[in-house]
């Protein structure tokens, strides 16, 4: 896995290089302190992976990616700031590591890169630059979720349920239930309707997680989501849409 480290702080580059010694598959082929140094290296060395800082003198990390011609490597952002996370996933970053980088989180990021390089189509990819910041998000997109001091970079396909909690939305994935400051209506506008269905006023469900469907009161439906005890009512009005969508 040919890897470039791009960070204007020498100590940060050294620390990341030290941590990456724990991963024999990672071959660090170079370092750069800014975009001007990095771009010719990317062109000449054709790395598989960039560990990329965001705030740097001159072009920032996002502007660097926009300047790459041809195939863009996989990207793991490394930064001391969490406010760039939403923009980071719009650039199809595989992960977003906050400094100081934790070895366990770095291990998760490396595993994610290995999975992408093994099963993805990196050689045919166009640059990781958002063509439309309002694009629909599907099951293979990853989102940054922050609730208090906890952070996740989760693939949307793992989220089985979104629940409105006033001005917040609760996400259900694995055994986690973080809250994000967003309305359910705004979230619905971003989600691919082929995968995510507005069941009622309070819930959006991931159709791929439905385990069982039962008739319910007043022409509605009751769905059970697999891997959990979540039972969600599909309102009568939405049940009509649901049947139209799911019927042959």
Describe this structure in words.
The chain has 248 residues and is of the alpha/beta class. It folds into 2 domains: 2-124, 3-Layer(aba) Sandwich (Rossmann fold), CATH 3.40.50.2300; 142-246, Beta Barrel (OB fold (Dihydrolipoamide Acetyltransferase, E2P)), CATH 2.40.50. The chain is built from 7 helices and 15 strands. The chain has helices at residues 10-20, 35-45, 61-67, 85-90, 103-119, 184-190, 236-246; strands at 2-6, 27-32, 49-52, 74-79, 95-98, 142-147, 150-155, 161-165, 168-172, 179-180, 196-198, 203-206, 210-215, 221-225, 231-234. The protein has a 5-stranded parallel beta sheet with strand order 2-1-3-4-5, sandwiched between helices. Strands 10-9-8-12-11 form a 5-stranded antiparallel beta sheet, with no helix packed on it. The longest helix has 17 residues, at 103-119. Residues 121-133 have low confidence and may be disordered.
